[in-house]
Structure formats: C-alpha cells, structure tokens
Amino acid sequence: MQLAFEMEYLLPVNERSTIQMIPYSADYQEEYKRIYNECYHEMREALGIEPFDFIQDDSFFESGMDKVYLLIDDRVLIGSVTFKENEIDDLIVNIGYQNKGFGKQILLWAIEHICSDTIILHVADWNKKAVRMYQKNGFRITKAIPIGENNMIREAKKEDLKELLELYLFLHEESIPKMDGHLKETWDQIIEDKNHHLIVNEVDGKIVSSCVCVIIPNLTRNVRPYAFVENVVTHADYRKKGYAGECLEYAKRIAEQENCYKMMLLTGSKRPETLNFYEKAGYNSSDKTAFIQWVGKKV
C-alpha cells in the first residue's frame, strides 16, 4: 500500500532561510522541464510504475507558472517550489544538488513567503527523507490517502462522535451510550489531548474502521515515549479489505513522528486469523508477556 500524506505546519521553527528565490522565468523552461521530469521519474520508479516524462510538451507552461519560484545560482537552476493557495507543492531539487541542504532552504523560504495562517503540503510515504525533513521543520502528518484508492485515513474530528459510537457496536459494545454530560466531557478530553490519537479510515465519506494510538511520555529509554494501540475495529461490511491495517500503519507513522521506541497492543481474540493480522502489521507475541487486571466490574 502506497500512501500520500497531508502534512500541516503546526510547530513553527525559528530558523530563517538563507536564500533568495525569483518568480519563474521562461529563460529556464528547458532546464525546469528536465529537472521536473527527473524528479517524477524517481517517484514513479518507487511506486513500481514505468517512468515517463511528466512534462511532455510546452502546454504545461501555459498556466499556473505565476505560482512557481526558482532558486538560481550563477544561472544554474538549483530547485523550485510552487504555491497553490495555502499549499506548498512541487518542491524539487536538481539531482546534482541534492543532499546539500537546498531542499530545507527552499522549504523555509516557502514558509516565510506563503500568505496563509494554515500551511499544508503533500508527500508520498515512500519519500522518507522528505517526510523527515518536513517533520524536522515544523510539519506534522494530519491525514493519509492510499494512492489509487477511494478512502482516506485521518484523525477523528469532533463531529465524528456519533459515527464512532455506531462503529464500536462492531467491537464489543452492545449499545450506544447515552449522550449525556459525562460522554461529551470524555469526548472533549479525547479530542483535545495531543497525545490521544483516534484514527479513522473513511470510505466515500463513511467511517468504516478505526483504532486509537496513545503516546505515553516516559523517563526511560533516553526519555523516549512509547505508544499504546487500542480499540481496533472495522465495520462488518468492510472487513478483509485492508482498512484496519491502514489504520495501524497510520498509528505507526504517528509513533515514529513522536520518536516512540515501541508500540504495544492487546487483543482478547485467540483466533489465528486475528493473531496473524497483528503479526503482519509488525507486532509479535514473543518479546513480552502481557498481564491484565480488571478494575471493578469486568467490561
């Protein structure tokens, strides 16, 4: 499964760019075409798709180029970035100048010059170097979209409560709890807690699968936190389609983003297919021994 992450600028950094960029100029059209196509060749190879030239003719340059900015050094095109309203797009670096910090400088310049209080960008999950660079410079993953699919993985929003309670009927709940003050207060705590990530998988606007990933601060393991995964559930009509696995993969991305040293989950199921599902998701039952103590009445 290949994912496209949407990332939002949530942790502003104090570092300023050290470069100056210029509006796109047709003087660099051929060089821009070459660099752009080389970058997309790399992407398509990573996706297992036969590479092709994304820009095949000059019609590409007929519109939208007023949103493109170039980094030029001694008349050499080093890299480029495009603004699409509040989105940073097509941040590319000439292959001959990669791994020299130019991508970071272009990103910082874009952050400084984009005219919006909310800044987002999109990046493929295979491009781990770019994902790490964005994370180090204030961006956080806010949703994931499986490439070529019709579903989206994201964190729950306040208006998702009713759908989630209905989905939990396919977990172990026998009824939907009363919508009273205690429930609403609990929901507010979950939504507002930055360490409590309630992940949902949405298909055609319907929440069909979910899991919870809680990041727990920790004083051991070089003061690295750990993650606990709970409430893994999929609607009965949408099982065996990979939706729960996508939620768990998204949880793993969050754990990596928060520098966790491990992830844990418990399951009461003894069914081989359930245990195999978690093993395929990267978990094992051999490294640790799990104990559980029910407090009060068992639920």
Overall structural class, as computed from helix and strand content, comes to alpha+beta
Give the N-to-C terminal Cα separation. 35 Å
| CATH fold-level topology of the largest domain | Aminopeptidase
- Sequence stretches where pLDDT stays below 50 over 5 or more residues: none
Care to describe what's here?
The protein has 299 residues and is α+β, with helices and mostly antiparallel strands. It folds into two domains: 3-145, Aminopeptidase, CATH 3.40.630; 149-280, 3-Layer(aba) Sandwich (Aminopeptidase). The protein has seven helices and twelve strands. The chain has helices at residues 29-46, 102-113, 128-136, 161-167, 181-192, 243-257, 272-280; strands spanning 3-9, 22-23, 68-73, 76-84, 87-93, 120-124, 139-146, 151-155, 196-203, 206-216, 226-234, 263-265. Strands 2-3-4-5-6-1-7-8-9-10-11-12 form a twelve-stranded mixed sheet, with helices on both faces. The longest helix has 18 residues, at 29-46. The two termini are 35 Å apart.
SSE blueprint:
Blueprint: E1 3-9, E2 22-23, H1 29-46, E3 68-73, E4 76-84, E5 87-93, H2 102-113, E6 120-124, H3 128-136, E7 139-146, E8 151-155, H4 161-167, H5 181-192, E9 196-203, E10 206-216, E11 226-234, H6 243-257, E12 263-265, H7 272-280
Parallel strand pairs: 5-6, 11-12
Antiparallel strand pairs: 1-6, 1-7, 2-3, 3-4, 4-5, 7-8, 8-9, 9-10, 10-11
